[in-house]
Amino acid sequence: MLSGIxxxxxxxxxxxxxxxxxxxxxARGLFRDENITPLVGDHVNxxxxxxxxxxxxxxxxxxxxxxxxxxxxxxxxxxxxxxxxNPDINTWLLDKFLLMAEYEGLKTIICLNKEDLDEExxxxxxxxxxxxxxxxxxxxxxxxIGVEDLKLALNDNITVIAGPSGAGKSSLLNAVNPKLQLKIxxxxxxxxxxxxxxxxxxxxxxxxxxxxxxxxxxxxLHLDFIQDPVELRDYFREISKYGxxxxxxxxxxDQEPDCAVKANVNTGNINQLRYExxxxxxxxxxxxxxx
Length: 291
Ligand code: GDP
Ligand code: ZN
Hints:
The chain has helices at 29-33, 91-103, 119-131, 147-154, 169-176, 229-235, 237-242, 260-266, 272-289; strands at 2-10, 13-18, 21-27, 43-48, 55-60, 66-68, 71-73, 77-83, 107-113, 135-138, 158-162, 203-205, 211-213. With 291 residues, it is of the alpha/beta class. The protein has a six-stranded mixed β-sheet with strand order 10-9-8-11-13-12, sandwiched between helices. The protein has a five-stranded mixed β-barrel with strand order 1-2-3-5-4. The chain binds guanosine-5'-diphosphate (GDP) and zinc ion. Residues 243, 246, 251, 253, 256, 259-261 line the site of zinc ion. Residues 243, 246, 251, 253, 256, 259-261 line the site of zinc ion (ZN).
């Protein structure tokens, strides 16, 4: 018997990374009866067939997390990569990615890439998001900045990487582990709005017990998963923190009197842009509810 992790699944075959290499495996009928489908990211035990060396998945260990889009188990963290310029930083998109990561309960790191194109903007944004409660890595492929930090952050994790096309996700992963040889897109020939490619899900093996999902995470950024506007408050870390001081427990930090969140926006403890994005998301959720 061998233990391992499913790194790929295609047409009923699961590719399990073990200490003996990758073993092509099937799932036992048992799982179908129990209504469990093995997922990429699952920690499993396999038995090896004497005849042809193929594997049978015997046991799936309990999952610590399960993402549905993309379908993968045991993701431990999200790294959100945004470029400072080209494409220009989009804090609305960044805050939406952060919201998804908070909703999924993932540890989250923001990577601000292409620092070489505007160092000042990178530092300013880093300050804003650190203050909001996030870990931030500033990086540049051109100047070889931040790659070591990124590598350390990836170790011993299954990481979902999110971020717009052209932000530098492939370049950064190649820098962390050159054997990956991911294709680098040239955004001058690629749609700046991003491309949509549907593929199977696969974990890239970066060594050091580090795996990264090969498809960009959170590709669907619909807010249909939030039913109640009060949920949103908890997904903005700094708003949740200061909101404890509001006069009303039900305060949505919008038009209510004696709102501690608004007070802290005025004094600069909460960033104005973050607060505005919060209000926009609040409106979006409220209008979704009408249908
Ligand atoms: P992805 O779509 O997020 O995977 O982005 P890519 O890794 O394909 O990179 C998109 C483009 O940005 C490529 O032309 C890269 O050479 C370029 N790029 C990546 N990182 C940096 C960086 O730190 N600085 C600059 N100036 N360009 C970068
Ligand atoms: Zn309030």
